[in-house]
Amino acid sequence: MNITLIVLGIAGMLALLVVIQLIRGAFRIISSVIFLLFLAMMTMSILIVYDAYQMKKSLPGSSNIFMIKDGDMLQGGFEGKLGDALEIVFFDRNAVEEYQEYYSAGDMKSILETDYKLFIFDMKAFDELNWPLDTGQDDISKELMFEIMRSNEPLKIYVDAIYPDSEAGSEAIRKSILSGLSIEDEYNIKGVFLNMLFAKAMDEKDAVFILEEYRAGNLIIYPETIVFKFVKSVPTGLYKKATQLKKKVINK
Fold this sequence. Notes:
10 helices
């Protein structure tokens, strides 16, 4: 009887040791997998940030299309090289309506044509800027800016708000504003202001602005690079760590 108990006790201890070893082995495997996943996601996060900065470098030297939308409706935009006023074309109403047809059909390629990138910003992307916007002529509040962008008579909205004591729609004031902004059509003013908003956003937030708004669903980029396709799958914590490391990665 005693011998049986001893044998059973030894067998039980051996079984327990085996279970412990199995648990330790499984823990090591799980830990290794978690570490490898963390490393992979961190690497991807850094690549995403790096991709955004490479895009930022490429933007000034290439022709791109920038548009702003409210919900599913395109409101205005421009085409050209950033920083080169002579090579920027601001869209009139006919152009915006034509692009709206392509956009509604999901035909981004017909909008892009031969340009480098197409950027479509939802107005919400500019919510967190430091308002008002200094246009060089006046300061425009966020509320007024969004009202201008949504209007079919953007210049009238602008004149009525900035020059409330003048005769509404005064031809002299309209001509003065159009001349001051170097545009001919009143609908062009939406593209002019979008250009200013984008420049302000990049100045305040750098290329991280593009990533943040893309992750938030407030920015459509076409065509997407392979790395950008993964940007929304990166956990927020890793993404923030990657943005903190961006300077070390970019400056090497």
